[in-house]
Amino acid sequence: MSSVSREIYELFNKYGKLLASQSYPLGAEARLILDTEHGVYGTKKGVKLGNLKWADIVKMADGHLGTYKTGMVARVVSQTPYCQQCLREGVSFRAMVDDMAMIIGPETTVVNMTNPNKGKAAREMAKAAANSAGFFVQDRVVDGLPAGYTLTLGRNLYEAVNGVLILEKCAEIALKSRVLGGCKPVGKFGAKNTRINYLESYSAAETNLRAAEMESAPAVEEPDELEDYEREFYGIESEADEAAEPEADETAEAEEIPQWNEAETAARQKLVDYGNKLVETGLVQGTWGNLSIRLDDKYMLVTPSGLDYTRLTTADMVKVDLKKMTHEGLKPTSEKGLHAEIYKRRPDIGAVVHTHSSYCSMFAAAHADLNLSGASEAARKVFGDSVRVAKYAKAGTDKLAKFTADALGSGMAAFMANHGMTACGSDMETAFANAQLLEKTAEEYIESRL
User: Which of 100, 137, 381, 442 is deepest in the core (most CB within 10 A)?
Assistant: First the structure.
């Protein structure tokens, strides 16, 4: 049996489940690969990533991948539907939304590995990996059309897996936004800076947590050792020991719990609950998007910057002064200014949902307003005659906040050029429902014209 530690198994199992939870197939060749200080590990070809067994993960090499020195130690091989369509059609594209610029880079390309000059093909692959964290690889021809896979890279499995989600979304945007006149990509210089800023600072909090996941753990050499190893790994004692162990004194722990008034406690819990709903409903990929609730005329609560929604607790939510923009606790979302600007202009708004959902992102990428003349009565009642797209501005800036609030006007939603969408409501339930309604309405518009 190959030497695979519990740590490695847990990582592959966790991110295999995340990938497999998507609504689209991953392809027969889907694999996870991770380069560690102890060697390169990967899942076997053809295994079910959503139900990995210990034997499905093997040690591939004692050396390192070619991208190890650059910090790109994780890889995901996938064959998702829209990426496959782009590969077949030879469609490469520049970043048309900020989240692609952040996690993938300024553009994605098609690397032709069928070139008989293997040295040239290898150099083309190395160049693509140096310039982008995600690209298409043609390694054969099927029925006269290019065929192969998508390769995404990351500093950890979390980034490489989210690269798959982002690239599949952007491939769909590139193909379907044709009915809106096509994408208007982010400027190449701006996209490059967005990627650099992301690598240097934006994901620092999440990267630290992912690095902690990859700390070494002892290897399990034989199957019959697993039970004892798991008991030691999880700190599980025998039933006799557990029965003899005295009950813990909960007094000290209870004293450490922050004290908030009833309204703030409820608001914090609501942000936790709806952050999870964002992930469950597919309105966000990774940590992109954010939520807020107005506490009163002076304060709002927002989600923190760059942290996984599924791990957030009530204590992680950040209290921000609407005027001074000072905050308590963790670093708030970089879009805190957007939320504050809306609350200052619109006293009727009690909650804001900002997402990068797929169909809304098509309008954002195409810089197109959504005409609601043919939409459902429910959509027209909430959004009026149209949903406008705000002018482009760099993420997290005062200009983005101003342009979005301008486009929002007296309405309940707006698209944000090359970025995403913002939906509002009197409370979080309404704001979230409006976000879902807008995504559904945008989908109906696009699909009816394909």
Answer: 100
- The string of DSSP codes covering 272-337 is HHHHHHHHHTTS-STT--EEEEE-SSSEEEEPBTT--GGG--GGG-EEEETTT--EESSPBPTTHH
User: What are the tens digits of pLDDT across the range 25-48?
Assistant: 999 999 999 999 999 999 999 999
Residue 296 counted as domain residue: yes
DSSP state for residue 96 in the 8-state scheme: -
Residues catalogued as catalytic: 335
> Do 128 and 53 belong to one domain?
yes
pLDDT above 50: residue 358 = yes
Question: Of the ranges 65-69, 111-115, 231-235, 395-399, which one carries the lowest mean pLDDT score?
Answer: 231-235
In a domain, 113, yes or no: yes
Q: 9 and 128, same structural domain?
A: yes
In a domain, 238, yes or no: no
Beta-strand runs (E) in 156-207: none
Is 156 found in the same domain as 274? no
> Is residue 206 located within the same domain as residue 304?
no
Enumerate the β-bridge partners of residue 153: 75
Angle at 358 between CA 354 and CA 360, to 5 degrees: 60
Q: Is residue 84 part of a domain?
A: yes
The answer to which of 66-80, 220-234, 319-333 has the lowest mean pLDDT is 220-234
Residue 94 has, within 13 A of its CA and on its CB side, a CA count of: 15
C-alpha span between 125 and 123 (Å, rounded)? 5
107-108 and 370-371 strand pairing: unpaired
pLDDT tens digits, one per residue of 186-235: 998 999 999 998 888 755 555 555 555 554 444 444 333 333 333 333 33
Q: Which residues pair with 355 in a beta bridge?
A: 421
Contact 421, 415 (CB under 8 A): yes
Which residue shows structure tokens 């909960």? Answer: 250
| pTM of the predicted protein model | 0.86
* C-alpha to C-alpha distance for 196 and 101, rounded to whole angstroms: 9
Query: Which domain-ending residue is among 176, 195, 213?
Result: 213
CATH of the domain at 145: 3.40.225.10
Contact, 425 vs 412, CB < 8 A? Answer: yes
Residues 186 and 324 both lie in one domain: no
Q: Residue 392: which domain range? A: 262-447
Structure tokens at 74: 């994780």
Q: So what's the pLDDT on residue 281? A: 84
